[in-house]
């Protein structure tokens, strides 16, 4: 949940003057993302002031700054950070990290509203990012451990977690029955994966440095054109097939109630491959990577049962629907993707 800001309008004016030497004349609070974000007018220009949640530490913020500055040198469409007077790229206010960027005029789009052009643009920019980051010089990204995805122990642990949540859900009179049904289905699917063992074959898919949270919600549009890609705080080394299929599932307007349009996913993957390569192994196991990752997550259900967050419960239920779809259709998707020429 979004943390309450430490700022007042007066303290924003004071801190921006102190740290950037700019005179703020207008302040607007924006409702976007998990940080407190303000649109400022200062010295006749517009800026974004971003106050991160307390959980974000200097290391992760500096990673985002390093990644964005590096990608800007590669001519990717990313934000421009403003340096403080002391040449740092952030300052602290009441122990929270704060950064400032140039404001990018444009609009954001909701999940699953993308047409064919927007679909292919998303795939193109993901491929460009993955290729650009191959030369990224800093050793500050999370290193992927495929055992997180592909071990009996992890699947069994999540079966146990789902059982614990079912016990909690029995006390919820509003959504308890729905949650118990979803989590019971997830347990059944996890047990099927354990019995089948196919998921273990995903352990050698290609791992690349990538955005880490790449989706249509991280784009700023000017009409139908992507004007900027934002929020690289989760940049990491990940199975690139996970980033491909996940971002597809977030943008395609024909991806409804967890059901994919397989031909669109194939086109999306082909477009990505114009800018960054995949091998036959990646193509074959792409749906299984995504299935195992989201099936292993209790995100949404756990948060609702702990603090009543209905938005996150909705998110968790959406991902369970994707799991149901992928359990039935991963083999077909795998076969279709495997037909792509390398």
Structural write-up:
This protein is of the alpha+beta class and 342 residues long. It has helices at 9-20, 58-73, 116-132, 152-169, 176-196, 240-251, 262-273, 280-295, 301-307, 310-338, and strands at 24-30, 36-42, 45-51, 91-93, 96-102, 207-210, 219-222, 225-229, 236-239. It folds into two domains: 9-102, Phosphorylase Kinase, domain 1, CATH 3.30.200; 116-338, Alpha-Beta Complex (Aminoglycoside 3'-phosphotransferase, Chain: A, domain 2). It has ten helices and nine strands. The strands form three sheets. A five-stranded antiparallel sheet has the order 1-2-3-5-4, with helices on one face. It is globular and about 65 Å long.
Concise account of the structure shown:
47% of the residues lie in helices and 14% in strands. With 342 residues, the protein is of the alpha+beta class. The protein has 2 domains: 9-102, Phosphorylase Kinase, domain 1; 116-338, Aminoglycoside 3'-phosphotransferase, Chain: A, domain 2.
In the sheet with the most strands, the strands line up as: 1-2-3-5-4
SS content category: alpha+beta
- Characterize the overall form: globular
Number of helices: 10
Q: Which CATH architecture of the largest domain?
A: Alpha-Beta Complex
CATH fold-level name of the largest domain: Aminoglycoside 3'-phosphotransferase, Chain: A, domain 2
Please give the domain count: 2
The span between the termini is 43 Å
What would CATH call the homologous superfamily of the largest domain? Aminoglycoside phosphotransferase (APH), C-terminal lobe
Following the backbone from N to C, one meets helices and strands in this order, namely HEEEHEEHHHEEEEHHHHH
CATH class of the largest domain: Alpha Beta
How large a portion of the residues is in β-strands, by DSSP E? Answer: 5-15%
Poorly predicted regions: none
> Biggest sheet, in brief?
5 strands, antiparallel
Helix percentage: 40-55%
- Number of distinct beta strands: 9
């Amino acid at each position: 949940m979004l943390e309450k800001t430490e700022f007042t309008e007066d303290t924003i004016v004071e801190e921006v003057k102190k740290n950037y030497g700019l005179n703020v004349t207008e302040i607007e609070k924006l409702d976007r993302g998990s940080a407190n974000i303000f649109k400022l007018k200062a010295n006749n220009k517009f800026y974004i002031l971003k106050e991160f949640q307390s959980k974000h530490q200097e290391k992760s913020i500096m990673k985002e700054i390093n990644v964005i500055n590096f990608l800007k040198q590669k001519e990717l469409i990313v934000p421009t950070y403003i340096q403080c007077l002391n040449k740092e790229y952030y300052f602290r206010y009441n122990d929270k990290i704060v950064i400032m960027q140039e404001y990018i005029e444009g609009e954001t789009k909701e999940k699953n509203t993308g047409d064919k052009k927007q679909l292919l643009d998303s795939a193109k920019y993901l491929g460009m990012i993955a290729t650009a980051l191959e030369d990224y010089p800093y050793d500050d990204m999370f290193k992927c451990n495929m055992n997180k995805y592909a071990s009996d122990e992890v699947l069994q642990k999540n079966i146990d977690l789902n059982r614990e949540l079912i016990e909690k859900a029995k006390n919820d009179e509003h959504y308890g029955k729905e949650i118990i049904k979803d989590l019971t289905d997830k347990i059944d699917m996890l047990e099927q994966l354990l019995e089948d063992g196919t998921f273990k074959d995903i352990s050698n898919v290609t791992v690349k440095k990538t955005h880490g949270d790449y989706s249509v919600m991280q784009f700023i549009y000017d009409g139908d054109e992507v004007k900027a890609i934002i929020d690289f705080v989760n940049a990491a080394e990940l199975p690139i097939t996970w980033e491909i299929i996940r971002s597809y599932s977030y943008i395609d307007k024909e991806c409804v109630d967890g059901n994919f349009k397989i031909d669109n996913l194939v086109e999306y993957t082909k477009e990505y491959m114009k800018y960054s390569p995949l091998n036959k192994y990646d193509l074959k196991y792409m749906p299984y990577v995504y299935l195992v990752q989201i099936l292993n997550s209790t995100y949404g259900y756990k948060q609702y049962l702990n603090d009543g967050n209905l938005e996150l419960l909705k998110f968790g239920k959406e991902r369970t629907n994707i799991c149901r779809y992928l359990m039935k259709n991963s083999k077909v998707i795998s076969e279709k993707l495997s037909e792509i020429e390398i």
